[in-house]
Description:
This protein is α+β, with helices and mostly antiparallel strands. The chain has a single domain (4-186), classed as endopeptidase fold (from Nostoc punctiforme) (Alpha-Beta Complex). It contains six helices and ten strands; from the N terminus they run H-H-E-H-E-E-H-H-E-H-E-E-E-E-E-E. The chain has helices at 4-11, 21-24, 32-43, 63-72, 83-92, 104-111; strands at residues 30-31, 48-49, 60-61, 96-98, 117-120, 132-140, 145-151, 164-168, 176-180, 185-186. A six-stranded antiparallel sheet has the order 4-9-5-6-7-8, with helices on both faces. A two-stranded parallel ribbon has the order 1-10. Strands 2-3 form a two-stranded parallel sheet. The two termini are 22 Å apart.
Amino acid sequence: MPNRRSFLLAAAGATGLLASPRILARGNSLALSQLRQRAHQLSSMGLGYQFGSNSPDKGGMDCSGTMQHLFSSCGYQGFPRTSAQQYDWLKEKKTLRKLSGKKAAEKLLKHIQPGDLVFWGGTWDSGHRVSHVMFYLGYDPREEVHYSFGARSKSLQGRFGNGVDIFPLNLKSKNLVGHGSVPGVRVDA
């Protein structure tokens, strides 16, 4: 029976050596497997949570900086910096589904697709409705767990013990505010 790491590697599309994401990108069209591979690479780098950072060179990144780095390191151009800007951008592109209320998690699971960005509000006083974002990797039926990639606070660690890592998707939060697909991301496998 495959273990958790083998699922995460399969979800990342890893089949040996990982190809350079910059070589694979074509404009703002990216394969989901490419983003999963890069997310897995980043989660294996031992990065912590670092507020205000969007560069692994600083030893860590914050949630929206991790999203910006994930996409830009794969060749995506013009990806917004903050979670509020990312939320507004998907709203403008008409790919955002707003969530609220007691059934927000149920609504999320009904429509979410691997590659979607998931947004929360009220995780800290950001001055915006949106204060946190993660990248949805998919569902592991063996564990019955939905996984996401991103950065969480210094007190939370992911599957590999890092702040920038793969985490179970937080469905118990009353603070879910939306999710949406990034324009140009295509499902390839």
